[in-house]
Amino acid sequence: MGKQLHIFLENRPGRLEAVTQALYDSKVNIIAFTIQDRGDFGLMKLMVNKPEQAYLALADKGYACALKDVVFISVPDKPGNLSRLATLLLKNKINIIDAHGFVLDPAKVGICCLELDEKDMKKIRKILAKGKFRVLDEKELYEI
């Protein structure tokens, strides 16, 4: 399990550069990101190697940001495995608030990042183990 950084930004040129430069200046490495358009504003979600340090660096510069608890799940990169994970979550009535993923090649392992309800976060590790999925802690993720 780990943390994901959410940043609320104006949707205008230069905002991505300013955020990434602030993180670079703070010696924070970005592992993955998404940007969602919300009209005049956008939501940037980052997986970084030092989430608390990243949060402080951006908050000090006046960015509206938050750290969210997430689950990092190792999913072998083979057809049907995301469906198998989705089925396992459905059978256990786990509600996904937000999700994104990526594949690490040449490791051929997918990383699925899920934001869940607090009640589901408490039981997810056991559920995933039953389905033979592995939860990565932050240290494991950052060393990939």
Task: Produce the secondary structure layout.
Elements: E1 2-10, H1 15-25, E2 30-38, E3 41-48, H2 51-60, E4 64-76, H3 81-91, E5 96-104, E6 109-116, H4 118-130, E7 134-136, H5 138-142
Antiparallel strand pairs: 1-3, 1-4, 2-3, 4-6, 4-7, 5-6
Features of the shown structure:
single chain, about 140 residues, alpha+beta, VC0802-like, Alpha-Beta Plaits, 2 domains, seven-stranded antiparallel β-sheet, 5 helices, 7 strands, about 40% strand, globular
Overall pLDDT, averaged?
A: 91
Which geometry do the CA atoms define?
Answer: globular
The separation of the N and C termini measures: 15 Å
Q: What is the CATH topology of the largest domain? A: Alpha-Beta Plaits
CATH top-level class of the largest domain: Alpha Beta
- CATH superfamily descriptor of the largest domain: ACT domain
Helix amount? 25-40%
Sheet with the most strands? Answer: 7 strands, antiparallel
Overall number of structural domains: 2
The overall strand count is 7
